């Protein structure tokens, strides 16, 4: 069968529709309409534009206009049949485009899931990644933005962030997508300004309460997945620790995963060092909050007191009480380190709410 090469290749049967309408006034039957729809689908699959196909139909209408058929009724019958035929063709064309778009989106979503979770064969994943401008042999970093509402690829916030990055850096080698309601930016590891700019744009576009985490650049086939998991862990850590910063870098928070790696040892440190605070009137929480504010203030009593809405005298009394109960003096550098590490551990383990 000869390959079709242009819009005129998809006009089979159209001339008969015109001549039948002119001769008998008969409109296209179901078979002819279905044939026009199929031709429209095939033209879309072949990559032809709908505009060129409609132009080909109009040109064919002029070429096959029945001779001598110029009365108003004849013109109306022929144009009515042409309208039905072209409408059926356009319907088939649009249906094929919708199906292709849905299939493309499904393929893209499957690729995104495989990329972010390190699934699929590495060679196949790398080949699919090239369609999106990603070379998995290089290092990539992943930034994740979350807000009070979930975002998908078509959300105005996602589109705004994507357009901002495309306008600044172009779309090559940068992938903007969404996953589990969060906006994801996959960027080459040697372009540190891209995730920084993404964080700035995402924070500006997301309503109050937005937070962005940036994973470290990782190389290899699973590099994107590792960086993505690191960014997610950073978001979880920020929630658990109560960090106020809107933008967090995993590279600046490495001490926390190190502390949490041996949970049993960390739990022993927390219980041994801070457990005695439970003997205080009101329990351990007020004194734990005092230590947190004191360390966050750089061990400046006046600033910590303002944070807690206490007088400096009241804060000093609490610190003395902590020293008495725990045997660790917050003013002593070595003992202060033990206390501060225990306080961080308490926040990581949600102590004393979870014992």
From TrEMBL:
Record-annotated PucR C-terminal helix-turn-helix domain positions: 287-343
Signal sequence interval, chain numbering: none
Residue ranges of domain CdaR GGDEF-like in the record: 118-237
Assigned protein family: Belongs to the CdaR family.
Protein name: PucR family transcriptional regulator
Species for this entry: Streptomyces ehimensis
């Amino acid at each position: 069968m000869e390959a079709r090469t242009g819009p005129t290749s998809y006009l089979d049967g159209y001339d008969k529709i015109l001549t039948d309408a002119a001769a008998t006034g008969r409109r296209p039957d179901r078979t002819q309409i279905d044939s026009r729809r199929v031709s429209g689908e095939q033209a879309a699959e072949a990559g032809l534009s709908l505009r060129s196909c409609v132009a080909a139909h109009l040109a064919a209408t002029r070429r096959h206009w029945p001779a001598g058929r110029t009365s108003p009724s004849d013109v109306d019958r022929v144009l009515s049949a042409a309208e039905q035929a072209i409408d059926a063709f356009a319907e088939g064309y649009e249906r094929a485009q919708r199906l292709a778009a849905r299939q493309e989106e499904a393929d893209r979503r499957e690729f995104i899931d495989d990329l972010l979770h390190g699934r699929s064969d590495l060679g196949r994943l790398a080949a699919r990644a090239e369609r999106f401008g990603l070379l998995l042999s290089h290092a990539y970093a992943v930034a994740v933005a979350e807000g009070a509402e979930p975002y998908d690829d078509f959300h105005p916030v996602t589109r705004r962030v994507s357009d901002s990055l495309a306008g600044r850096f172009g779309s090559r080698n940068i992938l903007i997508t969404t996953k589990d309601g969060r906006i994801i930016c996959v960027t080459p590891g040697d372009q540190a300004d891209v995730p920084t700019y993404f964080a700035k744009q995402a924070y500006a576009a997301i309503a109050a309460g937005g937070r962005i985490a940036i994973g470290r650049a990782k190389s290899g086939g699973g590099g994107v997945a590792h960086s993505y998991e690191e960014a997610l862990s950073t978001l979880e850590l920020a929630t658990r620790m109560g960090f106020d910063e809107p933008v967090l870098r995993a590279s600046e928070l490495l001490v926390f995963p190190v502390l949490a790696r041996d949970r049993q040892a960390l739990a022993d440190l927390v219980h041994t060092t801070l457990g005695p605070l439970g003997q205080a009137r009101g329990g351990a929480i007020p004194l734990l909050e005092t230590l947190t504010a004191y360390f966050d203030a750089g061990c400046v009593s006046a600033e910590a007191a303002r944070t807690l809405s206490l007088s400096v005298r009241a804060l000093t009394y609490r610190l003395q009480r902590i020293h008495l109960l725990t045997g660790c003096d917050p003013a002593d550098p070595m003992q202060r380190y033990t206390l501060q590490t225990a306080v961080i551990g308490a926040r990581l383990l949600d102590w004393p709410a979870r014992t």
